[in-house]
Protein: SDR family NAD(P)-dependent oxidoreductase
Organism: Alcanivorax quisquiliarum
Amino acid sequence: MARLPLPNLLPYATELAGAALRRADAALFPRFHLRQRINGRTVLITGASTGIGEVLAYRLAQAGAQVLLTARSTEKLEQVAARIEQQGGRVTIYPCDIANPEDCDRMAAEVLAEHPRIDVLVNNAGRSIRRPVLRSLNRFHDFERTMQLNYFGAIRLTMALLPRLIDQGGAHVINISTLGMQTIPARFAAYLASKGALEMWTQAAANELGHKRIRFSLVNFPLVRTPMIAPTEIYRYTPAISPEQAVDQICRAIITRQKRVASPLAYVALGAHMFLPTLSEALVNLGYQLTPESAAARGKTLPAPQEQHPDNVRPLRRRRQR
Ligand SMILES: NC(=O)c1ccc[n+]([C@@H]2O[C@H](COP(=O)([O-])OP(=O)(O)OC[C@H]3O[C@@H](n4cnc5c(N)ncnc54)[C@H](OP(=O)(O)O)[C@@H]3O)[C@@H](O)[C@H]2O)c1
C-alpha cells in the first residue's frame, strides 16, 4: 500500500497563533496595520471601476499596494487609474468581461505574464437582480447571468491564478458576498443562489488549500449605497452603509485574514433561520407581501437619482474618523 505523505499542519498553527493579534491590529490602528500588511504587495481587484471596488482601489493604493484593476469599462478604469497615479500610487488596468470565460482566461494570463506574484485577490465584481420568482418564470437568463459573473467568473479567475499563488508560497483570496446569505430576503433568488454557490466553493476550497497557505475570506455586506442599488427605488429610503464603510470591512479581512467578516445581525439572522425556521420565513414573507415591486422588476426604468446620497437617506452608522 502506498504511504501517505505526512500532513503539514504548520501553516494552520502559525495562522492560529497570530489570529488574536491580527484582530487587535484591525480594531486598534487599522490604517497603520493595513499599510504594514499591504505596502509593496500586489492586489488584484475585480469590479474596480465603480462602487466598492473603486473605493477599495484608492484605499489600497494609498496604503502602498500595487493595484491591478479589472472591470468591463476601459474608460472608467482609466479614470480610476489616473486618480491613483495623481496621488503617487502604482496601478495597472485590465479591462475584461469576467462573465465571458475566454475573456476571463485572457485577462488572467496577462496578469500572470506581467506580475511575478499576486498577494491578494479580491473577487468583488458582481451583479444583483431583485425580482421575485413568479416574475422570473420567463427570465431564466436572470439566473444564468448572476451565476456567470458572481460564481463562475469569480472561481474561474481564482483557479486560473491558483497554481501561481501556491508556487509563490501563499496568497489571500477575498470573496465578496452579501448579508442576504444569512437574512435570505425575498426577491433575490437568482442573486442569492449565485452568492451561495460562491460561498460554498470558497469554504470547500479553503478546506483543501489551507496547508498550502492559500487563505480565503468571505465578506457579507449589508446594503451599500453604490450604483448597484440605484435602480431599486425603495433603497433610496432604506438605511445603507457607504462604500467607504464597506471598504473598511474588506480591509479588516486583509488585516485579520478571518474566515468571514459579517455584522452581528448576520449571526442573529442565521440563528433565527436555523432554530426558528417557520417563524423567520413567515416574517420575511410578511415583508415581501407588504413591500412594492421595484420599477425594474415591473419592467420599467427609473429616472437617475439627482445625487447619490439624497438628504432623506440616513446612513446606518456614521463613518468613524481615524
Ligand atoms: N451594493 C450593495 O448593496 C451590495 C450588498 C452586498 C454585496 N454587494 C456585493 O459587493 C460587490 C460590489 O458591488 P457594488 O455595489 O460596488 O456594485 P457596482 O457599483 O455595481 O460595481 C460593480 C463592479 O463590477 C464590475 N462588473 C460588472 N459586471 C462585470 C463583468 N461582467 N466583468 C467584469 N466586471 C464587471 C462593474 O464594472 P463594469 O460595469 O465596468 O464592468 C463595477 O466595477 C458585488 O459583488 C456585490 O454583489 C453589494
Q: What stands out?
A: Residues 304-322 have pLDDT under 50 and may be disordered. The beta strands are 42-46, 66-70, 90-93, 120-123, 171-178, 214-221, 260-261. The first helix runs from residue 10 to 17.
